[in-house]
Design a protein that fits this description.
The structure is a homodimer. Chain A has helices at about 5-55, 60-75, 105-125, 130-150. Chain A is mainly α. Chain A is elongated, with a radius of gyration of 22 Å. The interface of A and B includes residues 41, 47 and 78 of A.
Chain lengths: ~160, ~160
């Protein structure tokens, strides 16, 4: 191999690695954006229900049932793709996910299951009446908070 | 009413109107963000399936089925809250929704139904094999494009 061909081969390998890293980074960025979008949709629907619970939005059984049904349907989506390695805070732009999220698998799964239970109960209650909606909101807020406190860095 | 009390009343009314407008604007902004988040989740899941269809991501029946199932579940969410009056392009920041979206109700509903049919078929096909996935992607792309061409302004 001549010096020139070595240089070309090295440059080509470098370009390939950079391209590979860019693809990997773009996949990580897409995952971070997707999980934020998912949380945004929880927030949008919870905003409607919270507004009704606080009396800022008039209670409407159909609308409440739809918002709570949306949350339960979102919670049932397959979300494994949201959390690739390399997407913790400091590794991926805009990420506030703490590294413990990737090491405390059992606790993360348990918190996820508690959240799904709470939103399933919310979906069953929200369209009944305002008191039922209010009663089902607390456990959902606790489930959200429980995971955020353990696995999301403060802003 | 003295001149001073009239001034105070006018100022208070002005503040109230501004506050009301701010609340309304923030509801519109929340709706625009939510519909963009919803589209983002379609894109994330379609990115996985498109990558497999093009051979850039290795076909994995389980992962394909989950991504397509996610899209079908998202399509079944209640989305009425995404499109409040005052959220067309030029009315709400970041909106590219054309005003015709609010006036062509029958066509919008028909396009929505065609999209749901296409993603239901995709969800049934994606986990079977790569050829089935590829075959079901075309109608989904057409359904996306059909609505975007009619109701979304170019960037």
């Amino acid at each position: 191999m001549t010096r020139k061909s070595r240089l070309i081969a090295t440059a080509a390998l470098g370009a390939l690695c950079l391209a590979g890293a860019a693809v990997a980074q773009s996949a990580v960025d897409a995952a971070v954006k997707a999980r934020k979008a998912h949380m945004q949709l929880y927030a949008f629907n919870l905003g409607v229900l919270g507004g009704m619970a606080k009396g800022e939005i008039e209670y409407d059984a159909e609308r409440a049932g739809q918002a709570a049904g949306n949350i339960a349907a979102l919670a049932s989506l397959s979300q494994a793709g949201y959390w690739p390695e390399g997407s913790a805070q400091g590794e991926a732009e805009g990420s506030r996910a703490l590294p413990a999220l990737w090491t405390n698998g059992d606790d993360v799964m348990a918190k996820g299951a508690a959240f799904r239970d709470a939103v399933t109960a919310l979906a069953a209650a929200a369209g009944t009446d305002l008191a039922s909606l209010r009663g089902a909101m607390g456990p959902v807020g606790q489930a959200c908070g429980s995971c955020h406190e353990s696995y999301r860095a403060p802003e």
